[in-house]
Every structure is written in structure tokens, then in C-alpha cells.
Design goal:
The protein is of the alpha/beta class. The chain is about 30% helix and about 25% strand. It is built from 9 helices and 12 strands. GO terms for molecular function: ATP binding.
Length: about 280
């Protein structure tokens, strides 16, 4: 398990290819939210961002998306700083799915997914055959073809999240950023959603709360604590009993499944700042 302000060396790839954050910080009102974090997701991998509430996961995702600018450090896309690239060019490459995305507009599922084609179209231009093909493919990939004409707000929570992922897929991105997409979903829809995300041919960074789901689906993990990287590596390397106790203040028993060696965490109880079990 590696610790510090950056991810472990095995996390790296060609610095001029893909999305990369190098020692980024973000300060708000004198408070350090993200503190010197470096992230280089391997192409095609599923990278999980873990950490307690307030650890900086959502802020780091917004930095990677270019929605927020780092106070120091740099986020690059194929070696170019994000702040030097047009927003439309970024949107053609990076798609973002926020937790509990909502809209008050009376849009159908198909219309929501078509929003993903906006970065590829000129202003006031008509929808092209390529746009419609991308929308059809995204609906099919997410199992929503039969819901294309249904109003988005009538969908279940899991279906709404799938529709948002379909919208992101219609962008035809190479990088996908998701912020707690399983929040408020039941376990079946959590599994369905993460199975879909894991099957996508893109580089994905996903913020999650559930450590067992992260261990099941992610190729690499980054654990944040108070804005810094507490650990980075494979699930087996990162998810240890010491790490869970140190970062989450929870005692755990961790075993590893035989076929793949992925960890399974059984929580035994919390512990106070003194290290004594909570009763």
C-alpha cells in the first residue's frame, strides 16, 4: 500500500495520453479541499475514488472534468492543460454523470440522451444521421431502447441513472467521470449499474462509498483522506484492515476470494479516536 499525496507509480501511464492530474490542490475560503493529488488513470481502466464524506472526492472529479480550476497543479488532457482547451473540445472527450441528476423539463428519455450530442454539433445545426446512430447505440447499450419515448421523470431511480449514462455515452467520450452513481439505489440496481459501467470501452473514474462494490468492480483504487491520497493501487493492495481502521475509523475483517483475489470486507464495528471499539 502506498501513501502520500500522489498515487503509486504503477498507476501511471504515458503523461501525454489521456486524462491526468498532477499535484492538484483546491482551496476554498482558505480551506484546503484537495491537497496535492496526482491521478493518471490507465487507459480503459475503471478507477474508484474512495474516502469518507468531505474527503475531496467530488471536488477532485470536478477538477478532472475542468468544471473547477485547481488552485495549484495542473489537469491535462493528452498533455494539454484543460484550462487551455475549449469547453466544447473537452466535452467531446470527457463525459460527467453527477449523483442524482435531475431536470424539471418535460423531456423524454430520448431527448435527454440527445443532449449528449450537443458538443458534436454546430449551433443551430440539424440532428445528423451520426447523431441519431450515437443515440440509438447509447440507448441500446444501457437497455433503454423501449423507454426512448417515455418521460424521464417517470423513470425509477436506477433507470434515471442509466439514462444519464446513456446521455454520457452519446457524447462518445474516451473518459467518463461518475460521482456516486449508486447513491440511493437498491442493491440490484447498484450491481446492474456497475456491471454496465465496467463493461464500457472507456477510461472511467468513479466516486463510491461502498468498499465492497469498489473491490468487486474497480481495477484500481485511490483512497482520499482530508483531501490527500492515503493509498493507491489495486483493490487487494489498498483495502487492508489497517487502511479501513485508519481512514474510516472502523474495524474490519478482510478476506480474499479464491479466483481473483479481490478483497471482501466484513465490518466489525467502529472505533473512537482512542482506538477503543464503539459500544
Amino acid at each position: 500500500m502506498s501513501t502520500g499525496t500522489g498515487t503509486d507509480a504503477a498507476m501511471g501511464t504515458d503523461p501525454d495520453t489521456g486524462l491526468r492530474a498532477e499535484r492538484v490542490t483546491r482551496t476554498v475560503g482558505g480551506h484546503l479541499i484537495v491537497d496535492g493529488v496526482s491521478v493518471t488513470p490507465p487507459p480503459g481502466s475503471l478507477v474508484g475514488l474512495l474516502g469518507p464524506n468531505g474527503s475531496g472526492k467530488s471536488t477532485l472529479l470536478r477538477l478532472l472534468a475542468g468544471v473547477l480550476a485547481p488552485t495549484s497543479g495542473v489537469v491535462t488532457l493528452d498533455g494539454h492543460p484543460l484550462n487551455a482547451l475549449p469547453r466544447k473540445a473537452i466535452a467531446r472527450r470527457i463525459a460527467v454523470v453527477e449523483q442524482n441528476a435531475a431536470t424539471q423539463a418535460e423531456l423524454t428519455v430520448g431527448e435527454v440522451v440527445r443532449l449528449g450530442r450537443v458538443p458534436h454539433r454546430r449551433a443551430w445545426s440539424a440532428v445528423s444521421a451520426a447523431d441519431e446512430e450515437a443515440v440509438r447505440h447509447a440507448l441500446a447499450r444501457t437497455g433503454l431502447m423501449d423507454r426512448a419515448d417515455q418521460l424521464w421523470h417517470t423513470l425509477s431511480g436506477g433507470e434515471r441513472q442509466r439514462a444519464q449514462i446513456a446521455r454520457a455515452l452519446a457524447q462518445e467520450p474516451r473518459e467518463l467521470l461518475l460521482d456516486e452513481p449508486t447513491n440511493h439505489l437498491d442493491i440490484r440496481h447498484q450491481l446492474d449499474l456497475l456491471s454496465l459501467v465496467a463493461s464500457l470501452p472507456v477510461t472511467t473514474v468513479i466516486a463510491l462509498h461502498d468498499l465492497n462494490l469498489a473491490a468487486m468492480y474497480c481495477d484500481r483504487l485511490i483512497v482520499l483522506r482530508e483531501g490527500r491520497v492515503a493509498a493507491g493501487g489495486t483493490p487487494r493492495e489498498v483495502l487492508t484492515e489497517d487502511l479501513v481502521a485508519e481512514v474510516y475509523g472502523v474495524r474490519a475483517d478482510i478476506t480474499h476470494d479464491a479466483p481473483h483475489g479481490r478483497p471482501h470486507i466484513r465490518f466489525l464495528g467502529g472505533q473512537g479516536s482512542s482506538g477503543q471499539p464503539l459500544r
